[in-house]
Amino acid sequence: MKSKMSELLIIGKRIGILVFLIFLFSCSKRNITYFSNLDPEQEGKYSQTVEVKPIRIQKEDELEIKVTTLNPESNLLFNYGVISEGGEVNIGSLGSYGLSKYIVDSEGNIDFPILGKVNLTGLTREEAKRKMTELLSKLVTDPRVELSISNFKITVLGEVNNPSSFIIDTDKITILEALGLAGDMTVYGRRENVMIIREDESGKKLFRIDMNDKEILNSQDFYLMQNDVLYVEAHKKKLLQADINPTTIAILSIVSSVAVALIFSFDEIFN
Questions:
Q1: Quick check: 129 and 202 in contact, CB under 8 A?
Q2: pLDDT tens digit string along 152-182?
């Protein structure tokens, strides 16, 4: 009888050790601090020196363009594609027009009133404004052009609190700003292995960055481009939880509790 009890006691102790190791593994320390290798003594001196790549117009981009000239009829024509049919045109101030929208087609062109097809793909916003101004200057005096990319969008997915797509109204956005829009990473997000999916004229590109490393601040990858997808992978502990059936978790918890109880009971009875 005692031999059987001794065997049970050994088994119970082994189960207890196994449970302890599992608990120890599950509580292993993880680095969830951004730029954790930044020296505190250099925090005030660390500066961004990388040259930021400008956003360039791509196919299927949606552009908003407003043209203002000294001639009210030209304003009406270039902004709405219509000509006044007699009478006085009293719409001539800068704030009286909304920005007309133009889709960049598969060949990189927009179809602009009077000018016709204008190729803008590959140009920055300032370069596109300059090109439009030069073309319009051949037709009217002193044209003023406003141009913006209205569908500048980034998408943040994975282990963040608010995964979604976001329309950006500026010419640049950092990874930190994108994560801020998405409510930051959850505690299960792998900060050391964040994935960026980017598509341009040459095709899709995929690369990874380490948000724990201060050197990302000096990388061009710190800034996102239009239509970028930022994907935060889940830590393996989260994946393990997703794979384990809730019933299995409950059974393991009960078995662990019983094993611990047996260990203490057998020690009191037979020692």
A1: no
A2: 999 999 999 999 999 988 888 999 999 999 9
Residue 133 half-sphere exposure toward CB, CA atoms < 13 A: 13
26-32 CB contacts, 8 Å cutoff, 24+ apart: 26/237, 30/235, 31/191, 31/192, 31/212, 32/185, 32/187, 32/189, 32/191
Looking at CATH, the fold of the domain delimited by 62-149 is given as wza like fold (3.30.1950)
Note whether 132 and 78 are within 8 A (CB).
no
The residue type of 68 is T
- State the CATH architecture for 152-234: Roll (3.10)
Helix%, strand%, coil% for the chain, nearest 5: 35, 25, 40
CA dist 178 and 227 (Å) reads 12
Beta pairing, strands 203-209 & 189-200: antiparallel
Q: What are the tens digits of pLDDT across the range 58-117?
A: 988 999 999 998 888 888 888 876 554 544 444 444 444 456 789 999 999 999 988 999
Give the C-alpha separation, 122 to 58, whole Å: 6
**Strand, coil or helix: what is 161?**
coil
Asked whether the whole model's pTM tops 0.90, one would answer no
Residue indicated by tokens 């009478």: 87
